[in-house]
Batch of 2 targets.
Target 1
Amino acid sequence: MDLHVLTLPGDGIGTEVTAEAVRVLRHAANKFGHKLTLTEGLLGGVAIHKTGTPFPAATEALALEADATLMGAVGLPEFDNAPPERRPEKGLLGIRKTLGVYANLRPVRAYEALIESSPLKNHLVRGTDMIIVRELTGGIYYGTPRGITGEGAEARAVNTMTYTRPEIERVTRMAFELASKRRRKVSSVDKSNVLENSQLWRKVVVEISAEYPGIELEHILVDNCAMQLVLNPRRFDVVLTENMFGDILSDEGAVLAGSIGMLPSASIGARRPNGAWVGLYEPVHGSAPDIAGQNKANPLGAIGSVAALFEYSFGLLEEAAAVNKAMEAVLNNGRVTADLKPSGTPATTSQVGEAVCEAIG
Ligand code: NAD
């Protein structure tokens, strides 16, 4: 298969972890006989330095040409007080908008080797393997009217939670399609006992579920879901939720896995004519200026994002599984970076990348 991937390493440890993700991508593509074409673009602080803008037109053009985009992280302390259009993070919003990615997918897995780093008791977290599907472009973060009016005792603030049927339909279909390749269960999260918005959400989810016989659907209120995530995380397979609930629940899910350096993510848009999803893949963490340039960042979140790229943008499940299995082997061997607190000398970022390639074989 021809794989055309754009890399946007960005700033700080973004460049270091992306180098290892690319090492693994090249290795796996080669092993499985794919033709890989890599292009590289500027995004974030590095783009501001070189072109004056965090999301240059050349990067936008490269993103539209590629089959999938692999990002590192953006953000440099020197821009912390810059105006919004000159902030590296503006580049992130730009690329997400260009690609039209409307669903954020965050896998949450409890790796056996990291079970002690979870804040939950081992018996609760062991075996956890879920994916949170968060609607990314609708809901209260975007709805209008919004704003603050009046002063003092007259002050009033408004936000509006809006969803349209098509917005709910497309993200629901994505959740069901993911579930059809997993353990065939969707937990749809809402607050339909209070919000009309959630009542529409539930109604549409039920209707779409009829297109997917054989996949179990449960509805769970968001407050109960927050509780179940820590009481019984194993009960979840695919968690489907709107933007703000997903923002909150996915961070709660994230802590189940141990270090932030471990967490991959995928933001997915429309399907291309060949059936693959448009996708933007990145670790959840930021540019970590405190450890940048020291070859000690954990690259497993970025490498896990390569597994997601294989799976969602190319439908290459065997390749994705090989990367995930290799990561698990590396964790089990203890060749991990300092954030995972290995018993011996911590591995460097590049040693972890090399170890994952070796484990792929
Ligand atoms: P951060 O994720 O960069 O770092 C938080 C803490 O986690 C730091 O102590 C860091 O050393 C550690 N850490 C993060 N990733 C790690 C890894 N792979 N291995 C080991 N340790 C790791 O968050 P922050 O410090 O709040 O933000 C730093 C910059 O990154 C800011 O400019 C922020 O705006 C930006 N940021 C970007 C993204 C993104 O590009 N998607 C996301 C979050 C933050």
Target 2
Amino acid sequence: MKVGLVGNQNSGKTTLFNYLTGMNAKIGNWPGVTIEKKTGIIKGTEHEITDLPGIYSLSPYSIEEDISRKYVFEEKPDVIINIVDATSLERSLYLTTGLMELDCKVLVALNMADLLEKKGIQIDIKKLEEKLGTKVFKISALKETGIDELIKEIDKKEDLTRAKIFDNNIEEAISSISNKMSDFHKRFIAVKLLEMDSRFYDKNKKEFDKVREELEKNYDTDLEEVIATERYDFIEKTKKDCAIEKQNIITISDKLDKIFLNKWIAFPIFVIVMFLVYYLSVGVVGASTVDWVANNIDSFGEWVGTSLETLETSEWLNSLVVDGIIAGVGAVLGFIPQLIILFLCISLLETTGYMSRIALLFDKLFRKLGMSGKSLIPFIVGSGCSVPGIMGTRIIENQDEREMTSILVPFIPCSAKLPIISLFAGYFFKENSGIASASLYFFAIIVIIISAFILSRTKFKHVSSSYISELPEYKVPSIKYVAKDVFDKVIAFIKRAGSIILICSIVIWFLLSFSFKMEYGVDIEESMLASIGKMVSWIFYPILGQNNWGATVSAIQGLVAKEQVVSSMAVIAGLAEDVEEGSEIFAQGTPFAEITAPAAYAFMVFNLFSAPCFGAIGAMKRELGSTKRMFKAVLFQTGLAWILATAVYQIGSRFNMANIIVISIIAIVVISVIISKIKRKKDGCSSCPYCDSCK
Ligand code: GDP
Ligand code: MG
């Protein structure tokens, strides 16, 4: 049988899906984590089950809602399991009443049963079954209780009749329309026709106009409103009859929110948390592991080199293996300890529920800028990798906001940019490397805010989206889940090193070892790569204060993968003449020896904001819908990166640190004042929860 998991965002669908199939789909406690559907087989049965993105109704507003609606209508599941967050029955039942109109079997699973007692809620299952006319089960996907009975029910015949939720006039009209129809999900479509939903209205349905017009005469307002009101009345009454809630129970989450969402200290806490994340991974772990890992990789390279020599392989082949592959791939792998800490921190922030608070915190600020807290989620996901971040923009209903967000997501430092940041920050800012790398993260946030502010007033004018209204409970993270999450991400990183980076390293080695005349073993200054680099290095002159072909060609390779920037530098440095065996990338004799601290910071800035890797550019193209718009976006990103990096170098190389700090503070204050003064004309502001403050 075909079984679909349908429910609101964050109701526990993926948790149940993983338990039932033994798979490991991504769980998150903010909306929008599942954006594609995922299919598996329920263990011990032959049922095929599909995990769908969260939806609030079957009338799609965003792409992910459309994915779920399409599944219900086009793939025709035999059974729909409607997962309901039992702790917020009222909100969830809206979708349930819609699902009850479908022609397939619907089972309601009241999830999070484990939280009911804590929250002082009691639900009468038998009564709820009678009211809805569907089987209801109390389960906990997390604690794995009550699920067996739910699964057993899939095969059984449905013996309840669905509730009629509208008044007699409407119910009669629905029957008279649906009786004449042959479509699957007749009742559902009949209701939609009465609501004049254009998505279901086609020429064949004209014959039903009369029924609707006849019915309309009974009411003052239009039918859509009547139907919605009756639906809500039904939900309210059902909730009242079936659930008892003890008032005023203050949960631990409420208490924690008093601190983490406090008007005054919430932002400082966020800054400290993110600073700690970078300080720990780049500063502390970076400083203590980089040399150790690099030495080991060098020793490994030497060992392989000597072994190859005893085998009497050719010199060029030894060089390819040791100076190309091992140096290139090894340079990237050396950052794994730091990545583990970064991934661990982010995973902990996600699973504890703190990330959702950050989203809410930024909601207000983002709304002023033309984005909602919903756009923040792609940014958080993007701190792992831009590709899922960009795909995550699908949860945003408003097209302008969605497109704008997908262009800005790559600005957040993704894990592939960490090696660049760590390499430069570690070498040039030594014991301040943690501060330098964290400052880049905040720099990115400021640039995103300013870009959003400008773009939403020029290019994307129709930005206004719903706000985040729900917050999951704080949770003690599951060690099993966090470990698996970190492990998966590290493996993905290693796979990239073993594939894309490996191939690029071979290509770079080739371009460095041969001249255009195809002579092997030339000085790298005469190599093909250097010749190409020297032709274009002027582009980076304002950023680096010098013509540096090595840094130029490396930065360009960031298009393939951002890790490749570091890998390319390692190969170039390793092949440079007059450099001691195994010495650092920035040692005397390498093309990078002359780079100064301001140039290093500017170079990081360029790599942070310039066009992302091909993978992310592809994702951007999908979300933007055309190649032309994708090119425009890439041009915008790279142009902005160049301007910002140039500004950083030009200011940084002229003024001392104290000046720069003071200038930055003044700039931030000035910009904030300007932003708070310019008011955006908002459409649909009435639905915003902050009306008093944004006026
Ligand atoms: P989805 O958006 O519907 O796919 O929801 P997820 O499966 O991603 O779960 C959202 C959050 O709810 C996660 O943090 C889960 O750990 C949590 N969760 C899921 N089921 C339960 C449950 O039965 N009890 C509790 N306490 N938490 C749950
Ligand atoms: Mg999910």
